[in-house]
Amino acid sequence: MHWILLCFITLLLSLTPSSFADITNNGIPNCTVPSGNAVNLNPVAAQDQLRFAVIAHYSILSTFFHSPEQAARDAAAIVNVDIEWQRHVINTGETMAEDIRDAVDRNVNALIVTIPDDAVYQAVQYAMSKNVPVIVFNSGLRYAQQLGLTRVMQDDYEAGRMLALELYNRHYSQPLCVHVSTQNDLDLPVINYRIEGITSVFNSTPTLMRAYKNDNRDEAIQKIRQALQSNQYDSIIAMGGAPTTDLMTAAMLGLDPQQKRLGIGFFDLGSNNRTEIFQKWPDVFGISQLPYIQGALPVFLMHLRVLTGYDPYVNRTIPTGPNLITKDNVEKLAAYDGSRFLTTPDGGNTTIGAVIPDVQGDTYQSNIIAGMTELARRLGWKVQLSREDGIYGYPDSLMRHVKQFADAGVNGIVLQSSDRSVVDYARNVSQQHSMPLTIFGTFYENPVAGIVNETTSMVNSLSYNTTRLTRSIAQVMVQDDLKTPVCFQTHTRVLNDFFCEQLYHTYQMILNNASSLPSKDTFIHSLNLTTSTTMEVEFEAINATLRAKNYVPDAYITLSEYIFNVMDYSILRGMMENDSAIYIADSLLDQKDAFLHGRATRIWHLNMYAMGYLAILDILLAGSSQYRPWRVVPLDAPIADTICPAGTYYYQAANFPYCFDANHSSIIPGMQCLLCESNTYNDVPNQASCMPCPMGQFSMQGATECKSCDGDPDADDNTYCVAYKLEQQQQARKRNIAVFVPLSIVIFLVLASLVAWFCWRRHKRHKFIHKQEPENVWLLSYDELMRPSMQHLSSVPSPSLHLSGGGTTTSPSMGPLVASPVRWSTGSDRQFMLPPHGDANTQEQPQRNENRDSLNPNDPALLTAFASSTANDSSEDETIPVPVKERLSEEPKDDNQTGYSKEEDRDYFTTTTTCPQEHSQQPKPLRRTIGFHRNLPVFVKQIGFKRLHIDAIAQHELSLMKIARHPKLVEFIGLCLEPEGTFIVEEYCSKGTLYDVVNNPDIGLTWIFKFSLINDLLEGMEFLHRSKFMFHGCLTSQSCFITGRWELKISDYGLAKVRQSQYDPTLMHTLGKKFPQLSRSHYMLPQHLPASSSHESAHPMIIVPHRENLLWLAPESVVCNGSNVCLTKPSRRADAYSVGLIINEIVSRQPPFKKQLEEISVHDVFEQVEKDGLLPEMAPSDTDEYSAKMNMIIAECLRRDPIARPSMTTLRNRVKAVDPHLTGSNNVVDNLATLLEQYANDMENLVRQRTANLQQRTLELEEERARTQNLLEGK
After folding, report:
1. Looking at the predicted structure, is the pLDDT value of residue 132 above 60?
2. Which of 188, 605, 616, 1178 has the smallest number of CB atoms closer than 10 Å to its CB?
3. Is 70 exceeded by the pLDDT of residue 482?
């Protein structure tokens, strides 16, 4: 035990690292690498380190108190980005434009720029045409708006207006604006915007005094003082930059506040005299745009843009100001600007708690976790997840986990909830612990809007801009000319999603056509956010209601991942209109797959990854400044026209929305776009593969079209074109060799002649083989059948087992299994002692593999025992023969009960030297066993004790059996010719005979099973009557077998002369004199064999093998001689009589003439049938709706006149008219599935009908109540 425990502990220790890795990675898998030399369109997956080029105008950035360049480099170090910062001694718009074009040509991954003039504007346009991502910062607001670019900056117009309002509120109205300018000043656009803001407050344009860097500083200071000492100005504003602020403060320190009241304003903190100016003058105000944050934010946002391929903010301004500087906060803002906090994030000791439900699998929340994990890993932080139950979490659980995280001392919490109690509790915890808290709502709305000041609070919310989103969707709806759209949203116990309502109002405003606008109730539908099954039922109910109103939606709109799953499942099942447009989000892999395969029409990108990334970024920047104005900007969800553009193909690298790249350094999307390889192209987007270029054309990597190899300079270096040109030259030389053309024609004709001769010879041989089947096709070895393959070695029965459960042991040479005789018990209970085609002893029989009828190794049919007999039924020696005719039990019986005499027990078989115990009182039983042929179980049964002599007649019979194939016939496998007798090998049927199934009270047969069995019987008999067999001849319910799929198959057809050869020659000689039709020469031979005697009758006869078979045979076809041997003249009309009796067995669930057999013998019953027209007892006609109809069909089959009996085709048509369960499948299991689906549809219609009746009845009661009220008031 100690060493076992030691091994177990060692195994756990070996598994520990991978387990921790999974926890650390929050379940995010690794991306699989595509085969070949495919290049990923995402640069993060294609290279080790990203390169960003920062190109900014010189003057204003050089005058910041703390350079944004350092902030950008600090941020780049966190996200592993190489920053290329371009600087010039003299910076102009032309040099900036040149730097931008050079960076684009050097294949940088992104650009971060300022846009001061038109030259830079045009260069940025060039970069965008090359698909280079661009973010604008600091300046260039108007240009960025025109280009639709994201910009990180303050609005200089609003900055000027904010500063002017502070002065105006203190009764200053005549400001002097001062600016230190340079040659080719690129700051002038910024200065002009600020002056416009100041003008909007004072209603007059202020005076701008410009000084230059090369001017004498003292003269400039004196000039400013002189202007302020005059009565023309009552305030001064430094327009931006540290040099301007220092010049202004130096001038103001030389003036006396007691002599004249002056207001002071400035843009951007300076480095000198800041403290003195605030202490000396009472009215001092400034504007800060947080330059350190302004330099760092573009790097993070661009890194996020490159990772996901989408901008989290589209054509939006991410404000870093204006932030008002006063005497109270100047030192704090200066300290924030002076601290390079990005260089020393407390990585190893920082833990972020994530209280987010439903983070497992392909969900929106798992995308958020992926974004959080990406930036947290860069910072060296840990993200710890809580385990939430339910789709949106339970309030008690959410609050408990928030408290647990806070008590554990985490450095920040990310929470998803719209429950007000949870939000308020989390806010209080954040305030108590001075801990950053980022919240986003259940429906990704802002749950703290109007509650907290997100600019200054430690609580922040991330949400989507639903105004922009609904407007975009509404515009597409109008563009697509939708007539009957519907919108689906979700709701919880305490909160509703108002997305559809907002979309409806936006659509109403854009449409401008009230007549074509659907009603609000028809357009908006909400599903309860519960289980998927419940939502599916609710969704189908809404669709049914819409169909009842004749409102067929031409578009389904939803952004909910859960409703999308319901809709996509309905589409895949074919339960929704194929021509309906589907508007969805594309955050999930399944959503992308639906769009790529045409199940979704339009998609909008909800960048959940960005939401998680920005949540960590917000916690990182929470301590950067008291003012964080960028936090109030919601995320955008742009429409996505494509997932992978032309020139690429999509590749699913993981079964997860995001995965780690090959270097395990970044988390990138799981659905990736790969560039088309050389000499392939894609001219349309969203393709699963690229198409090869046609012969004679080539393409470069990522091409959207192919170019000709002729005349293109790039073709000389392309190996594809080089090979093509070489091939063309070779073909040209071949065309010049005309002498080989005639020779090729001659060779072709010779070869064609040889092929034709070969085909003719093969056809002739194939025809001959089919005409005369060789012996080795059907001849099998008994020992080989009894020797299982390795696959079945563990499932072969023990040689000592007895099929009937007897106690004697069989010799191994006699086969592994030996059957007990078939016998009848006294009275009406029939015991079929042979195994029902494959049962085994319950306690000892191992498992067997199934046969063609869907056997499986665990099928109980192969595990259950063969029907066991009593101890006195077992013979002392299992090798003693048993007659094939009727076998009676060994117990003493009253002759009145059985109706048999001892003379009737004589054997039809020979008892020659093949039977060693010729004079034994106990006859040898015929062996029945299960063998294996080609790894499939087969049923092997002995038909006699003579080795069959193969002559022309037997050869023809066996060939006919071998080629006979029909699903309702037991397949003939072959024949075993052994010294101890002849064995038939046929298909194995696991359920036993129809007689056993019908008479087994434990098996319940509904009408669908009955009709299935009847249809199988009729189908098989119809085939026999149309085949060369022409009839069955001795059809009983014991010759019908049931497979594992509950299909009925017919056995014991054909091989009449083969079976006859096994009978006693003396008996056959006697019968042959009286009935010449029994002669083996009387047979319809093939055309190439000698014809039979002309004097013999044309109607064949066969011996009835068992006395009880008489109960199923037509009375006019049976002839009995004095030796109690009966023969039958088989015919199709006689088979119809047998079919009628079997159908009656199935319908009534009892054997034929059951009551009569309880009192008289089989022979007496048959005499009553023959003389008195006795009919079997049928099921009562009033039992159900089918019994009467089926009894009529049975009565037609049992008519005394054979001519009046229906054919098998007529019977099939009659049964089809009665059978309501015929659903197009021959298998009862398939029919049951179809009926269950039909039953579900019928129940839905019934519920709708009863609901309508109830509503109608309610209206009638209301009208009755109103009339009663009117009568009472009238009195």
Report:
1. yes
2. 188
3. yes
- Contact between residue 397 and residue 417 where contact means Cβ atoms under 8 Å apart: no
Cβ burial of 738 (10 Å; 0-12, 13-18, 19+) is exposed
Query: Tell me: domain 642-722, CATH 2.10.50, correct?
Result: yes
Confidence band of 414 (pLDDT split at 50, 70, 90): very high
Fold of 349-454+600-641: Rossmann fold (3.40.50)
Cα–Cα distance for residue pair 533/1109, rounded to 1 Å = 55
Q: What is the pLDDT of residues 589-598, one digit of tens each?
A: 999 999 999 9
Contact 802, 878 (CB under 8 A): yes
Q: Give the integer Cα–Cα distance in Å for 1131 and 802.
A: 39
Reading across the β-sheet that carries 1040-1042, which strands appear in turn?
992-993, 1040-1042, 1048-1050
Residue 597: left (phi > 0), alpha (psi -120 to 50), or beta? alpha
Dihedral of CA 740/742/744/750: which sign? Answer: negative
CATH of 466-595, one of 3.40.430.10, 3.40.50.300, 3.40.50.2300, 3.40.50.2000: 3.40.50.2300
1073-1083 exposure pattern, b = at least 16 Cβ within 10 A, e = fewer = eebebbbbebb
Contacts of residue 1086, defined as CB under 8 A and 6 or more positions apart, other chains included, come to 771, 772, 952, 956
* Burial classification of residue 672, based on how many CB atoms lie within 10 Å of its CB (0-12 exposed, 13-18 middle, 19 or more buried): buried
- From the list 499, 491, 570, 530, the residue with the least C-alpha distance to 358 is 530
Record the tokens describing residue 897, joined without a space.
């009960």
**DSSP letters spanning 857-916:** TT-GGGTSPPPPPPGGGS-S-TTS---SS--B-SS---HHHH---GGGG--SB--STTSS
List all residues 6 or more positions away from 1081 whose beta carbon is below 8 Å from its beta carbon.
Answer: 1092, 1093, 1096
Q: If pLDDT is split at 50, 70 and 90, which confidence band does 66 have?
A: low
Distances (CA, A) of 804 to 489, 580, 835, 872: 67, 64, 7, 12
Residue with tokens 């100016």: 277
Q: What is the rounded CA–CA span in Å between residue 618 and residue 1260?
A: 62
Strands 382-385 and 437-440: unpaired
- In angstroms, the CA 992 to CA 1121 distance is 33
Q: Domain-by-domain residue ranges, the chain?
A: 48-341, 349-454+600-641, 466-595, 642-722, 986-1080+1099-1223, 1231-1274
From the list 818, 930, 817, the residue with the least C-alpha distance to 880 is 818
Q: Which residues, in sequence order, are bridge partners of residue 354?
A: 385, 414
Q: What is the CATH number of domain 986-1080+1099-1223?
A: 1.10.510.10
Same fold, 349-454+600-641 and 466-595: yes
Considering the chain, what percentage of its residues have pLDDT values greater than 90? 43
Residue 1265 neighbours by CB under 8 Å, 6+ apart: none
Q: Cα–chain-centroid distance for residue 35? A: 24
**CB distance 123 to 111 below 8 Å:** no
Distance of alpha carbon 398 from alpha carbon 539, whole angstroms:
29
pLDDT greater than 70 at residue 137: yes
More confident site: 609 or 1240: 609
Mean pLDDT, residues 585-608 taken together: 92
What tokens were used for 160?
A: 């000027």
Amino acid at 1175: L
Q: Tell me: domain 48-341, CATH 3.40.50.2300, correct?
A: yes
CA quadruple 1040, 1043, 1047, 1049: dihedral, nearest 10? -30
Helix, strand, coil shares of the chain, percent, nearest 5, are: 45, 15, 40
Q: Are 265 and 197 in contact (CB under 8 A)?
A: no
Of the pLDDT bands very low, low, confident and very high (cuts 50, 70, 90), residue 878 is very low
pLDDT in tens, 752-775: 999 999 888 877 766 655 555 455
